[in-house]
Structures are given as C-alpha cells and as structure tokens.
Design brief:
The chain is an all-alpha fold and 170 residues long. The chain contains seven helices and no strands. The longest helix has 25 residues. About 4% of the residues have low confidence.
Length: 170
C-alpha cells in the first residue's frame, strides 16, 4: 500500500471528525458525548484525587499548565505555528477553566456540568483528529484540557474533611 494514500485517508478522517464536532454542536449532542467521556474517566480520576492533597481547581490548573507546556513543545517538535496560538489561548483560558471546576460540593457542581460537558464534547473529536494527523504533542495537550475539565467534585484530600469554623475556611 502507498503511504500517501494512508496519509490522505487519515487526513480525510481528521476532517470528518472536525466536521462531526461542528455537527454535534449544532445538533446539541456534544454535551452527551462530553458527559459520557467524563463519566468514563471519573473512577480513575477519583482514585487519583483521593490520594492527592490538591483541590479540584488546583488539579485543573496543573493540567492546564501541562497542556500549555506541551503546546509550546509542539511549536518546536511539530513545527506548528498553530500550536503556538493554541498555547496562548490555553494560557488565557486557565482562569476560566479554574472557575468552571472550582465548586467542590458534588450537588452544586452539577450546575456547571452542562457547559463542561459541551466543551469536552467539542474537544474530544478535535483531539482525535490531532492524533490521526500525527500531531502527538498537540493531541496530548488537548487531552490534558479534557482532563482539566473532568476532575470530579468532592472527595479530594483537601476538601474539608474536618470541621472548621466558617471564618477559617478560605
């Protein structure tokens, strides 16, 4: 088989994934995809979170920092100017992601899951398209954004496990 045909097929598949992401947004099915992915990785993330002293927003921020670093690395390794633009956008999006995942109470965090699921549902096909076109650093960077949005609420070691007076919570 000819490598050019394989590469062309993978590029067509990547374009189909991106068109599918746009269509899922327009049809309203992106949040369903996002919810399914978030629920699939929840047990693994909850297990890690239970052993970590970091809060949900701190874990999300660290994931976003790693994502920015990988995007910056993609500029050099993959020779992609678009990865540099993505790195800047991710850097600017860090505070927004921190606000989206700041709620630790599981019931109160449910109010933010629709928008989180929507973003995850849009990012997942685009992430897979990056892997199909062999942009590995960019794909892992986008996968870390999905991870940052998927940290489960509650259950963290830093969540208030001991009673404290209200003035000591911060």
């Amino acid at each position: 088989m000819q490598p050019e045909l394989i590469q062309a097929g993978l590029q067509i598949g990547a374009i189909a994934l991106i068109v599918g992401a746009v269509m899922s947004f327009l049809q309203g099915t992106a949040p369903i995809l996002g919810e399914q992915l978030r629920e699939a990785v929840r047990p693994l993330l909850a297990r890690f979170r239970n052993s970590s002293p970091l809060s949900r927003s701190e874990l999300a921020d660290r994931s976003m920092l790693a994502s920015v670093a990988l995007s910056a690395l993609a500029v050099v390794a993959e020779r992609s100017i678009a990865a540099g633009v993505v790195a800047m956008v991710l850097w600017l999006a860090r505070p927004m992601v921190g606000r989206m995942v700041s709620q630790e109470h599981p019931m109160l965090a449910l109010g933010q899951t629709f928008s989180t699921d929507l973003v995850i549902g849009l990012y997942l096909p685009i992430t897979l398209a990056q892997f199909l076109t062999f942009h590995i650093f960019t794909g892992v960077s986008m996968l870390l954004v999905i991870l940052a949005l998927s940290w489960p609420a509650g259950g963290g070691a830093s969540a208030s496990s001991q009673w404290k007076p209200a003035w000591q919570h911060g």
